[in-house]
Amino acid sequence: MRKIILFASVLLLTSSVVHAQKKKDLLAEIDKLRKELKTTEGELTEARKNEKVAQSKVKTMETQVADLKETNATLLTNMSSFTELSNKKASNLQTSQEIIKVKDQQLNAINDAITSNDSINLAVFSKFKNAIGGDNIKISNGTIYIVLPNTTLFGENDKNYIVDEKAKPTLEKIAATLNANPDLNILVEGNSNALKLDGKNLIDNWDLSSRQAASVVRVLQSDYKVDPKRMEALGKSEYATEGIETVTRIIIDPKFDKFYNMVKDNMKN
């Protein structure tokens, strides 16, 4: 009986020890599971936090992508406009270059014509210089003219408009040069002093200077056979007097039609 009681006591004690051990192990397992759960919850919280950050980044990137697409579209539009503008500028530049080229050609044509005209004037100047000598012949601004004092042409009387015989040798030399160069025309320009006239034989200084110019033209025509179609007479009264002494000017080829036609032809070519 004692053995039975002892065995039962041992069995009960063993059972209690085993139960206590299992309980301890179970509590340890529970504690471990709690720790793992806590860790998992922390990781879950961190994952959710990271997910929010990632979503925020995705939204930001989507916004940036949208902005980039818009910017790219704007750039493409601007590029198209810039290309169109560049093409227009290139076209305008080419047009401007063509205009400049044409203008340059025109300027060269005018310059060539001026050079040619100057060469002709120098040749004509030399012819008259050799014919009449002295300082009577001048060239200014592309115009050749012979200056003859009225005292040489008409004598000492300021009111005289008949060519003096002493002046005819000079006029003869001028006529000979004109007849030898039929392509030259002349304009005889009379200038008179501001004289008081009686209003009978001479009305005024316009009348006097015109008659003096006509008298020179008449001598060249009648005495030396210069074609009258090549000559003009012009009275300037006292309003174009050179210096103190009055003079008559014979302007060689004063018309510019030849020069104008030369320029026009060169510009056409």
Automatic annotation (TrEMBL):
Lineage of producing organism: Bacteria, Pseudomonadati, Bacteroidota, Flavobacteriia, Flavobacteriales
Signal peptide annotation: 1-20
Pfam family membership, one: OmpA
Name of the protein in its database record: OmpA family protein
Keywords: Coiled coil, Membrane, Signal
Domain OmpA-like: 141-269
Family matches, as Gene3D superfamilies: OmpA-like domain
Keyword Signal: yes
Coiled coil: 23-78
Keyword ATP-binding: no
